Amino acid sequence: MSYEAQFFQSLALTITLELGAAILLKKFAAHWKVAWPQFIVGVILASTLTLPYVWFLFPAFIKSRPIFILASEMWAWWGEAFFYKYFFNTSFKKMLVFSGIVNAFSFGVGSIFIN
């Protein structure tokens, strides 16, 4: 399988896992008044905007696997939190927690599929 095909497979898995975790979180946060269509589009966009950096930019600069994983996960966590803050017009602190949970779930479950 080509590198590009692996990227799209990883993107589909990431979106599926993060969207699933995000939907569960939204259901438990009834006070969060973001409409479902905007919510779904936001989660899909966040993953779509951050993953290309992890696949195509970071490997060019980071050769150590542990540092690559740390940098990639920090980028996804914080980058998506900033995106969510503006896209959903809410507090950064809440989106940092939200993004952290969603990305931790995606990383944990995704690691099972990759290894």
Keywords:
mainly alpha; 115 residues; 0% strand; globular; 4 helices
Structural topology:
Blueprint: H1 3-28, H2 36-61, H3 65-87, H4 92-114
Helix pairs in contact: 1-2, 1-4, 2-3, 3-4
Structural notes for this entry:
The chain is mostly helical. The chain has a domain at 46-107. Helices cover 85% and strands 0% of the residues. It is built from 4 helices and no strands. The chain has helices spanning 3-28, 36-61, 65-87, 92-114. The two termini are 16 Å apart. The model has no long low-confidence stretch (mean pLDDT 93).
The general outline is globular
Number of strands: 0
- How big is the Rg? 14 Å
Helix content: over 70%
Poorly predicted parts: none
Number of helices in the DSSP assignment: 4
Structural class: mainly alpha
Quick overview:
The chain contains four helices and no strands. With 115 residues, it is mainly alpha-helical.
